[in-house]
Amino acid sequence: MKVFLIHKIKIILLVSSMLFSLQQCYSQEDNFWSRVRIGGNIGIGFTNDTFNGILAPSAIYDFNNQFSMGFGLNFGYTDSRNFTATNYGASLITLYNPFPSLQLSAEFEQMGVSRSFEIEGQDINDDYWYPALFIGAGYRIGFVSVGLRYDVLYDDNKSIYASAYAPFVRVFF
């Protein structure tokens, strides 16, 4: 538990120092907060006996019109007839727009997963950390991007996603 806490503190300090150091890279006339954009993802899904929900706020800093970098928080919950899962974590995201309508992305996501199965009357609980590294491309119009991303670290047994490929709708205001 102490190692986990120290690891989280190191990540928070690294991200905070990166963001605060960016403010000094520009002249006094340029306001740091005018380059920060807030966005994220909210999702909800229902099927026959299943509920899925996700909440993933994020923030990015625009270095210029082509390059942005930031971080996000993630929380998800799934409840099914014989399966329950909760996942939580954080991600670092980099966005590159070689021209206005194309957005390329790289995103590292670290998720804590707590899931339980009921199989043949037996409860099986599983708690672990799962890393994902997404490489993606999308079509961008204004502050909305729609596209597809691929998890290069995908593990069929541990991933919270059904496939290494995942469509996305990304919004930053």
Architecture overview:
Helix content is 13%, strand content 62%. The protein is mainly beta. It has an eight-stranded antiparallel β-barrel. It is elongated. The mean pLDDT is 87.
Gist of the model:
The protein is built from 1 helix and 8 strands, in the order αββββββββ. A hairpin with a 2-residue loop joins strand 5 and strand 6.
Attribute tags:
8-stranded antiparallel beta barrel, about 170 residues, single chain, mainly beta, about 60% strand, about 15% helix, elongated
Indicate the structural class.
mainly beta
Distance between the termini: 37 Å
Q: Name the strands of the widest sheet in spatial order.
A: 1-2-3-4-5-6-7-8
Mean pLDDT, to the nearest integer, reads 87
Give the ordered list of helices and strands: HEEEEEEEE
Number of helices: 1
Sketch the major β-sheet.
Answer: 8 strands, antiparallel, barrel
Write down the overall geometry.
elongated
Number of strands: 8
Q: Unreliable stretches, pLDDT < 50, 5 or more residues?
A: none
Gyration radius (Cα, Å) is: 18 Å
How much strand? over 45%
Q: Percent of residues in helical segments?
A: 10-25%
